[in-house]
Fold this sequence. Notes:
33% helix, 491 residues, alpha+beta
Amino acid sequence: MKLSLDSQNKMQPEFITAEHSARLPHVRITKATLENFKNVEYGEINFHCGKTFVPYGNGVDMLGLYGQNGSGKTAFIDALYILKQLLRGSKVQDLFSECIAKDAPFAKLTFVFELQYEDGRVRKAQYEFCLAPEEIRTSSEDRMEAAQDYSATPASKYRVRIFNEILSESGPFYGNDQRMNPVIDLSGDELPFAPKSRHKFLIGQDKGAQKTVQLEVLKRLASERSQSFIFMPETLKTLTEYGYSEYLQVILELNCYGLNYFFVVNTRSSGLIRLNLALLLHTPKGSFPIQTDRPTSMPQEVFANVSEYIPKVNTVIQKLIPGLSIELQTIAQPVMKDGSVGQMVEVIATRNGKTKLPLRDESDGVRRMISLLSLLTTAFNDPSFTLAIDEFDAGIFEYIFGELLEMFADQGMGQLIFTAHNLRPLEVISKKFLFFTSTDPKNRYVQLKSIARTNNMRNVYFRQIESGDEEKVYNETQRKEIENAMRAVME
C-alpha cells in the first residue's frame, strides 16, 4: 500500500485524504491483557483513561509499572512493541518466538483502544491475536544475514506465527450506536474472514469471490512474514480498492496510529547506548541510529532530518543539564550505495560552548536522555501520542526523573507508559497511574488497595513488600541466605 507524507511529515495510508488526516481521532490504549506471554500466565491492566472519560484534546494518561526483577515489567513493554509492529503492518522479529511460555502452545495478547473524534464521537476497538513459534526453513547463513541490523538480535531458527486475529469495533457507525462486535475475525473457517455480515462493507458483493481469493493468498503471505493480515499494507490496499466504509476507516486510523503516534523504547535499543555502540535518535519523522564508537555515514535526507532535530534537543537538554549541547560534525561526504552523495558525521558534545568531546565520552544517562527527549516532548504536547519506555529511570538522576514525571502528570497531553526501579515517582504522581507486578503469574498486574489520598505510596509499597497482607508483590529474600550463598561460591 502506498504511503505519503502530509504537511506534518506523517506517513498516511493513501486512502486517508489530507483533509481527513488533519482530523484523525486521538487514540488511546485503554486496556491490555497478556496470556501465556513470557512469565505472565495472565495479566490485565485497565489504564486510567479507560476508567475516566478524557475529552477530545485534553488530559494526560500515564502508567508506571513497578516490581522486582523478572516479575513481568519488560514482558508488558515487549507486548506493546509487538502490538506496534503489527499495527504498522511490519514483521514481528524472530526473537519474539521465545516469548511464548514454555508450557503453552501459544500466547494471546488483547488490546482495547478508544478513538475520540473532534466532533465528540467516541469509538472503541479491540484487537486480539495469538502468537506461536514456527520453525524457519532456511539455512543458517540466511538467518545470519537477516540478523545484521541495528536491532542487534541473534539469529533464530524460529519465527513468530500470528494467527486468530480478531478486530472488533463499537460506537457510532452508520448512524447507529453499535455494541462491540467483530469486524474481521480470522479465528474460524469462514472465507476470507468472519462475520459474513461485514463483507458487504469491506469487500463488496459483486466481486466477493475475486476478493476472497486475493485475501486468502494474503493470509498465507502474512503468516510467512510474521505480519498482521489485517494491517499488512497489501490487505489495506485490497480493502481500500473496494471503497470507503466506516469500519475500514477505523482500521486505517489504527494503522496510522501505529505508524506515527505510537513509539516503544525497549531494552534492546537502550542496550546499544549502554554499550556505547549507537545513539538512537527517535523523532516523529523516524528513528535514526547513529554510531557512537565511530563516524556514521548517512544519506543526505537523513542528515537533514537529524540536523533539524538536534536544535530542538538542545533547547530541552540545556534546561536539564545546564551548559550541555550536541552538534553534528561533518567529517567527509562519501558516495552512498545508490550513487548519491551522503554525509559522514560524528556527534559532538559541547560544554558551555567551549569543551568539545565525542558524545561517546558522555555518560550512559546523558546519551539515553538525548535519545529520548524528542519522543518525550512530543508525548508531552500531543494528545494523540503514546510513548512506552522500559527502564525509564536507567542512568537518570533520581530528582530529575521525579521532576519529569510530575511535570508530565500535571501538564502533559499524551499517553506515557514506563517501567522503572526508582521509587521517586511513587511520591510525586497519583496512585491512579501506578500498577505493580505481583508474585501470582495468574494475576500479574495489580493496583494497591485502600490507599488514602494523603498516603505516601512509596511507604505503602514498602509496607506491602514487608507484610504481603493484600497483594503479594515481592518474592521474599533472606539476607543471611544470600550471604551464605555468596560465600559458598568461593569455597
